[in-house]
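Exercise: predict the structure of this protein bound to flavin mononucleotide.
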Amino acid sequence: MKILGVVASHRYQGNSEVLVKEALMGAEEVGAKAEILRMTNYYLEPCTGCGRCQSGRIPCHIKDDFNHLLERWFSVDAIILGFPCYFLAAPGTLKLFLDRAVAVGHPSPLNGKPAAVIVPYGNRGFTAYAFVQPNILLHKFGMNIIDQALIQSGAPGDALINDKALERVHNMGKAVGMALKTGDTTFKGEKGLCPVCHDRLIHVLKDMKTVECGTCGVRGKLRLVGGKIDVLFTEEDIHHGRNSSEQWFRHHMYHVEPGKEYFRSTKELRKERRGKYSSYLPKEEKGMVVEPVTKESK
Ligand SMILES: Cc1cc2nc3c(=O)[nH]c(=O)nc-3n(C[C@H](O)[C@H](O)[C@H](O)COP(=O)(O)O)c2cc1C
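Solution:
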């Protein structure tokens, strides 16, 4: 049973790395076999939105380390993902990888497998969107997130001297290891407002009654219970969120596929109108061009 600790921090042996390694030690204690992947050791270009992967030509054609990284992710049975909170959210490295993951179809080889997320951060109250990108990414791969932890540790190495935090993530690793053993991948962490991702980022829709988890697309009804705000989510509401296999299928059938037909049928019109915009204003000079570093060229 292989478990991959994925670290998305440029700080070598930083808090993310320490915390992920401690969690892996917990997982190994209950029988898992740990591996580590530092995302920042690899070169990733941004997704160019070329759409080639949508026509069934995967893996992605860009010559960088993305396909290698994907192979690593897909070769294991569980993931523990750690990254620092940057500007209230996940760092660019993770978003870059998520954007490129548009090339991955559903179900992915990680479908139904357990995952956990660890986010070290510096300042209380500056973490509102920290779990959004990992939730989208891991749910895109069909994974079941069984726990997520925000760990206060601002300066380099703070995590090393925070015994409570080390114990917290050690137990998290154990829980992921146990999920591998027993097959029970239900959420074991602190329950949040959204019944799927357990985040608290609820959008109030225009009717001022319906709310939606922006990440999962699960809708519920807002109500007051004993003077406190509460949201009622039914099983059906949960089923209609973005993350179920059926919803991924529907998204492809009713959004992606018709979009392709529209693209084909309006190609000529697009060509006709493009000239006005390509001849307007001189072309900008290119900035520094970084040559992609492939695994072979390293
Ligand atoms: C560019 C940058 C932005 C940051 N933004 C936040 C933030 O919005 N909220 C916060 O709590 N900490 C923030 N931090 C602090 C880091 O989350 C914290 O230092 C973390 O422990 C770094 O983890 P690492 O050692 O694994 O890189 C930021 C740090 C940097 C360098």
